[in-house]
Amino acid sequence: MSKEEPTLEDKLKYEPEHAWEKCDEEEIEEIKRFCEGYKEYLSYAKTEREVVDKATVLLEEAGFSPLKGMDSLKPGDKVYFVNRNKSLVIAVIGKKDIQDGVNIVTSHIDSPRMDLKARPLYQDNDSLMAVFKTHYYGGIKKYQWVSTPLAIHGRVVKEDGTTVDIVIGEEDQDPVLVVSDLLPHLSKKAQSKRKMKDVIKGEELNVIVGGRPIDDDDVEEKLKMNVLKLLNDEYDITEEDFVSAEIEIVPAGAARDVGLDRSMLGGYGQDDRVCAYTSLIAALDLKESERTAIVVMFDKEEIGSVGNTGAASKFVEIFLSELLELANGDYTQRDLQKTLSNSRAISGDGSAGVNPSFKSVHEMRNAAKLGKGIVLTKFTGAGGKFSANDAHAEYVGWIRGLFNRNDIPWQPCELGKVDEGGGGTVARDIANLNIDVIDAGPAVLGMHAPFEITSKIDIYHTYRAYLSFLNSE
Ligand code: MN
Ligand code: MN
User: Fold this and answer.
1) Is the N or C terminus of the chain more exposed, i.e. has fewer CB atoms within 10 Å?
2) Domain spans of the chain?
């Protein structure tokens, strides 16, 4: 075929290719190898803090240094900055002046879950159970979180500042927790007429943690005290310590291959740790680049990018100011403005893949499909692009060219049909810094569910896409 003249259709028509179709054995092996690393990371890193901790270990192993402690920066230097243990910025200093602009890939490392309340533990005397009260975090379909094994991941900070990290439910011998659903035999009146969002109500997301009384006749609430005693014996914490704790209740268990052909990968928190992992590995694999490469992992995207670890905060600007100061000896506000104006970014985030059972929510020509490579989302938003970052055609043209030159499979998409629903990403916050930015990440099936699905080939090419972008001149 290659020696023949391209047909009129070849020349004029555009249809994103199914990436698996042009994939050889060697590449399949490479994809498999890459995804084994991702699976291991996803199985371990189920909170923002755990993502940051794991990334820090990998960064140190690869020769990156904390930004604090550097007294100057030169091309080739590799640094990182951890913001309050929950967000992370990584930089590989390029040959050009930082003011000429940097290449930024962002992701978010918070995922929907259930957080424990400040006073979570009580005993229910009718059911004879000890229970944790929760407040869900992010946009979950609450009914998905019942009758499934759950784990505890979190940090307790005591009043003297010492910390205790807790992970229960991930080892084979660990107990798990559960929010129990109502049996169908008795749900006719109490539940079956409820609307979907209330099938399980917020105050019904109660996590069962115990059912055995403490062996102590002087104690009133024996079920509750037994749990407190167990936690105290194991972690040296008391009930008041929950007030200054961040304990996340997340799905228990490891990420898994999905499909008889193992073409997909399933696990908790792929939105958006799939982009965090792929951009992290891209930063680790980066050789000397012309422009300074920056990888940012934000917290709080799922609740509106708020707070000082979220994308609306100033910490990326502060980080860039520090880079300018360390690289050039000094900097002005104008230098920072130039840096931002000359920079470009990818907002790495999962997009909605077409689900074979729910095709009607998509307009199929502009829908993302698993296996067709990284998804380019020019605009997000809802109902008339409201609140969207709408990437400029000039920028989309440039990025399309970059991916094509680097043989990276990509597909354009919108998040569902017009007026069907919608969503936003950190792209809006990045664009507010006067940076050109576009959303690009793999398609995800069942986003925000306890078990989210991606295609392995999309994960691999998302990594390649980010690497080519970070490397771009
Ligand atoms: Mn996301
Ligand atoms: Mn999300």
Assistant:
1) N
2) 8-111+268-470, 113-251
Edge-to-edge strand ranges of the sheet holding 113-124: 163-168, 150-157, 245-251, 113-124, 129-137, 207-210
230 CA distance to ligand 1 middle (Å): 36
- CB of 58 within 8 A of CB of 280? yes
For residue 298, report the distance from its CA to the centre of ligand 1, in Å: 10
Q: Above 80 in pLDDT, residue 1?
A: no
Q: Say how many Å lie between the CA of residue 108 and the centre of ligand 1.
A: 7
Ligand 1 mean position, distance from CA 272 (Å): 5
Closest-lying ligand to the alpha carbon of 380? 1
pLDDT at 388: 87
Give the distance (Å) from ligand 2 centre to CA of residue 449. Answer: 10
Q: Which fold has domain 8-111+268-470?
A: Aminopeptidase (3.40.630)
**Which option is the CATH number for 113-251: 2.30.250.10, 2.60.40.1120, 3.10.20.320, 1.20.1090.10?**
2.30.250.10
Q: Residue 269 C-alpha to ligand 1 middle, in angstroms?
A: 9
Asked if residue 342 has pLDDT above 90, the reply is yes
CA of residue 111 to ligand 2 center, whole Å: 7
Task: Identify whether the C-beta of residue 350 lies closer than 8 Å to the C-beta of residue 447.
Answer: yes
pLDDT digits (tens, 9 = 90+) for 350-390: 999 999 999 999 999 999 999 999 999 999 878 888 888 99
To the question of pTM greater than 0.90 for the whole model, the response is yes
